[in-house]
Write a structure and sequence with these properties.
By secondary structure, the chain is α/β, with parallel strands linked by helices. It has seven helices and eleven strands. The chain has a single domain (about 5-165, about 170-240), classed as Class I glutamine amidotransferase (GATase) domain (Rossmann fold).
Length: about 250
């Protein structure tokens, strides 16, 4: 097995920045380090694939990279040839259903984990890098055959994490409460640790080494422990010491 190389973004757009602009330095460093020239873009989290490709291409082009849309070719063959894979945001259920329907889960996982093909995910694309999509915020507008995803990392991610506003009149469940409800499931369910990425936070993975990058803190939910604030620059490699998170954790950060 090769060293998986991942750059997992909470989102493509952050307030005050253009498309992928807040992560431009991290993306370019990531791609330059891996010496790639072409990015295979997977737009399946959106309905209009051509429009999504047209939105993504200019950004990568100005950085000096060619972008190919997976929907323009045989998808499995496109993944087999890919130098880099970028899965964009949108609806996670639609994305995962399409990946399952086109039999792409195994081939993407093989290219990333066995061949070391660099992987960039944003929002929904970050969700599907995890073992499962339990912690997406999206509406289930379609029904995938399984919630099981690419399983490139041994924990789930909640992109677009929002802190509760003590001055809000909204009395519904907070994002934190929903993640804690997930962690309260009985042990017969596959329950994973959850890294909650606020807007502008990014996880960089190199093998089993991981670090929080970007411009905002994250929040880590380990089952049986109080949520922890994670500063930019924090080493999160210890998350790779665990797989299924149905047991209590004693990890200290």
């Amino acid at each position: 097995m090769s060293r998986p190389r991942l750059l997992l973004l909470s989102s493509s757009v952050v307030h005050g920045y253009g498309f992928l602009e807040y992560a431009a330095a991290d993306i370019n460093t990531f791609l330059n380090k891996n010496r790639v020239s072409t990015v295979l873009f997977i737009p399946y989290a959106a309905v209009d694939h051509d429009a999504y490709l047209a939105k993504v291409s200019p950004t990568f082009s100005k950085w000096g990279y060619q972008v190919e849309g997976i929907h323009k070719d045989d998808p499995i063959e496109a993944v087999k040839r890919a130098e880099t894979i970028f899965i964009g945001g949108g609806n996670t259920f639609l994305l995962l259903k399409t990946l399952h329907d086109l039999n792409l889960i195994r081939v993407i996982r093989q290219r990333v984990l066995d061949d070391g093909v660099p992987y960039i995910g944003s929002s929904a694309g970050t969700n599907v890098s995890a073992p499962a999509i339990h912690n997406t915020n999206d509406m289930p507008i379609v029904f995938p055959s399984s919630f099981e995803a690419l399983n490139l990392i041994p924990f789930n991610i909640n992109p677009h994490y929002v802190d509760s506003d003590p001055n809000s009149t909204h009395k519904g469940e907070t994002r934190e409460e929903r993640i804690l409800q997930y962690h309260s499931l009985p042990s017969r369910y596959p329950v994973y640790n959850v890294l909650a990425l606020r807007e502008g936070s990014t996880l960089y993975v190199d093998g089993q080494n991981a670090i929080l990058k970007g411009i905002n803190k994250a929040r880590l939910f380990l089952r049986g422990k109080a949520p922890q604030e994670i500063d930019v620059g924090t080493d999160l490699s210890q998350l790779f010491a665990y797989t299924l998170k149905s047991e209590l954790q004693s990890m200290q950060l």
